[in-house]
Amino acid sequence: MIHLRLSTAVIAVSAALICLLVYLPALDCGFVGYDDPDYVLNNPLIRQLDAHTIKSAFTEQYIGWWMPLTWISFAIDYHFWGLDPFGYHLTNILLHSINAGLVVLIAGSLTGREPWLAEQGRFPYLFMLLSAGLLWGLHPLRVESVAWVTERKDVLNGFFALASVAVYLRYAGRREERGAWPAYVCSLLLYACSLMSKSVSLVLPVLLLVIDWRHQGGIRPGRTMRLLVEKIPFMLLSAAIAVITIRSTAKAGYLISYSDFPFSQRLAVSGNAIFEYVRLMLFPLDILPFYLIPDPIPVSYALKTLLVVLAAILLFTLRKAYPWLPATLLCFLLPLLPVLAFFQNGDQSLAARFTYLPAIAPSIAVAFLPAFIFRKTWPGRWRQAGAGGFMIVLLLSHAFLTRGDIPVWHDSESLWTRVIEHRPEVASYKERGRLYAARGEYRAAVDDFSAAIAIADGVWQRRIFNLYAFRGEANRLMGHYPEAVQDFTAAISLYPHPAYYYHRGLALKQLGKLADAERDFARAGGAGVELGWYEGNEL
Prior knowledge:
By secondary structure, the protein is mainly α. The protein folds into two domains: 2-409, no CATH class; 424-523, Serine Threonine Protein Phosphatase 5, Tetratricopeptide repeat. The protein is built from 25 helices and two strands. The chain has helices at residues 2-23, 36-41, 51-59, 68-81, 85-111, 115-118, 122-137, 143-147, 152-172, 181-195, 204-215, 224-251, 263-282, 299-317, 324-336, 360-373, 380-405, 412-422, 426-438, 442-455, 458-462, 464-478, 481-494, 498-510, 514-523; strands spanning 291-292, 348-350. It has a two-stranded antiparallel ribbon. Helix 1 packs antiparallel against helix 5, helix 7 runs parallel beside helix 17 (380-405) and helix 13 packs across helix 14 (299-317). It is elongated, with a radius of gyration of 26 Å.
């Protein structure tokens, strides 16, 4: 047993090193204009690494989130690296690589008692453990969490959450012994740290109950109450963080009300998200950094939701013959719950980063699935060779796709260009257009704003005056003053914001129409107004 534990530790280190090598190209990535300015570039909280920063991280909510350990980790990076993105990416890669090793350790604890696995032999079993860690760690869905600096909260939360589960499994295997309680306390403290990195691990206490049911002798009379009592401290932490998160996000205006986004639509968007997560786990091609909720929501979302429900029912009907199926399903769905549309904030329907914790159980299941399927039908040597060959091809394909997706996060232009190439939407054209305008590439900016105007519908059509104004400003800065006047006039006809009058006045002045320009300046209040994105209710 000691020898097997040592071998498992070696496999865990091997998985971590392989992940490290695959993700090294992310060190060439920079910051992107999507949340990185708020989290790092313009974040005053991380500029000093001292007692005041640590106190502020724990006592204040910055940009609507309470995640003190994430802010402190950024402060540590800033202390050593300033605003050099290399160091921030290095930290993300190291954390993710360690997490891949932790997945191996968890897989070892979960599968070590399966009698049919003992028949596979030591080396095939260790290869399956390695596969479990790499299937999760190298999957292209992990790229967003690793190569995007902002998602430090993902990899940091993952580190503490996975460490908490690993230590809990050690405790669970010795819970009847007198000296087991330090492992329990350590697991609880690690769980608290995960919540202070990102609140997405709120459901971990329920996951621990699923683990007890499936892998630690089951939940049975005379034992159930003890297992539930064990989880009370975990649940109290979850409840506290849930209250803090809901209050902070509501105060920041992130949460969307049920009156604006009714339950029926949330259900359809959630079902579609689950369907797409499964599809992308199986076929990880053309993963995008941004998936918007369409307006209106298509009928296909309801059909996908129905398929998800039917599939879940089918898996639970097989629970007696294959109890690992519903357990894997629960360990996939429960961590997804906090990021589904039932608790919608923002306008994204799904995101690759949301699979960071949910994908762990399916990855472990897939790693051991070939051995389970063929355990009675193939001669051992050929079965193992076939399963091993399949797994090697799968892992190599994941590594290849992951390497190909890392450059998407190189900078803001590469990010939005990836979205436009595969799913051209108003938001992506608008963001890339603003990027081009900020860089002085006004012709390219005008083209992107024009493309956005051409396809604007739904909520974007109701805010289209912003697009006309952005295009008008790009035209003005390019010296195309008549076109600028036309664009600002169109924006004013839809929403007469003072900024639009001021910037149209600047274009009119360049055309020599001084009287018209002065009238626009007067309507603007006589002072320069910077253009922004307006919701239409500011006046």
